[in-house]
Amino acid sequence: REHRGRDECTVLMAVVLAYLLLICTDTVISATTTYFVSPIGSNDNDGSAKYPWATISRAMQGIKQLKQSHGGKLPGPVDIMLQPGTYYGDSNMELQFGPDISGAAETPITFQSVDRNKKATIAGGESVGGWEETSEGVWTVDLPSASGQKPFYQLWMNGSRRELAHTPVMTYQRIGDKELGPRDYNSYYTKLKPDVPNEEGYIVFQPGQVMSDYHDLQAVQAVVYHSWTASIHQVKAVYSANNTMYFQNPTTSRFSGEASGNRFYLQNVFEMLKPGTFYLDRKTWKLSYHALPGEDPRNVLTVMPTTMQILVAMGNASNGSYVDYINWKDVNFAYSTMETESCFAGTCDGQSADFLRTAAINLLGARHWTFDGVEVSHTGGYGIWANQGSSNIVIQNSHIHDVGAGGMRIGQGEHGVIANPTMRTTNITVTNSVLEDGGHIYQMGCGILLQESAMNVLSHNLIHDFYYTGISIGWTWGYAPTSAHHNYVGFNEIYNIGRAVLSDMGCVYSLGIQPGTVVENNVCHHVWSYDYGGWGYYTDEGSSDITIRNNIVYNTKCAGIHQHYGENNMFINNIIAFPHQVGCVPGKSCVTVAIRSSQHPPGSGGGGPFSSFTFERNIVTLTCTCTQSVRNSCL
Fold first, then answer.
1. Are 363 and 426 in contact (CB under 8 A)?
2. Total-model pTM
């Protein structure tokens, strides 16, 4: 009886404490509120399973109303269930989530497909119909135009990207004020400074390459290759007498030359319509498409993009106005247009396309968001961007592909310490995901671009088929202070990088001091640059305090590991196998190099202290295949 009495007393005390906690707590968590959305629903419905709404924006309005009816707080978790189908209804405006559509730890908001095998698609585009065949293989449709509507430069047929009508790749004679000729390594960096774009960019082309009477000449775009970028320019005028083409936006010639092959091509050229390409007349809004053999556009789903950003978190970390606890599960995001105005206002050029200001999913001041099992595809720029003070974002079990630039972007490129700590992006996780097939517009896009950001985890991902780098981290040149530290890059497979299009890249590329950063247990293979710089693991200018261990790299055009000055890096227990030897060491075209360390020339304004690194317990295996009797060596 004494033991039973103590038990009864304990139970009574627990009940009293629970009651006191309940009455003293501001918020009582209710059951989950569930709304339903269907492409065949109506926004006049009540959002129930039987009477679903028609658009995502209507569901967002429902969340606002629910919060307003409960004193500005959600009474419990909210689930938005999306029926299968494509949601075009919101395509002319991005979905903007502000602090008024924000969850909490106990009351998260979750958007998910009802059936994970038939995922709902949120589209930033519109379907195109009404095709008529006007000549053999060429189909046209007159599109409705609206005041202020911008031309689009992407098109998809049944989910397959079609290209703008374009010329073959050609070689020019000169660009800007830079003469052709081999790079002078001793004076290169001083001779070409200051790095100021020409106010009016131009190239001198080979006779007969470019016409002066293209249909709508000023709608034609020139894509000009540089060492590690490909800039885009609107044509201003063509003068056949001196073989000169002027651009509406400026260009810089600093990194043009033999490493770029002096290559360029023209796109958005009506005269170049050929199977699989399209052209939009910006004056009449007539869309022309040259069908592939056996293809009938009337029998396929054609989609044109209409918005640059499909989903935006509109938080403001600087004043503490965050957008919190929103989850996306088993949802597709597809179709976004190219960012043109900001691009053409400048050179439309920059390493890793970091000049872009938008992404298909752009998270500003977002915290505790999860993307699980999502697909992001058919974009005009980067797929997802964790931006401006966002933190604790997780992207997992997801697929980002067919992107105009790169797959994932983290942080912002301020090239140094971000002064306001609240604006620093931290604790982003990208894991168990596939990022592939990028650079369709901005060819310098990376699989993952991480800039001035700390404590991020990039692990267990498959990253492949990008024209530039797989993972780029850091982004402070030289030994200046930085906001990048304690980043983890591990257990990723990265391959088919460069694809013989751009130069000076790697599977994992770093810039600047990055204490606590670890790159381990990755597999890197098949890196092939156009000219020099098809590296595996690349610690570029000032990269310091980075540990690179337990990695495998093989089949690279150039060295498996390349350090371009830095300090205190650790290369431990790696396997470096089968680098090639083509054009990777200036003046020594037949040298097989597994490990390379380099400096800027003296007085070039960037060398800093000499490089230092530790190289231990690594396995290096290579095959010398040179046939020249001179310079036939392995390093």
1. no
2. 0.91
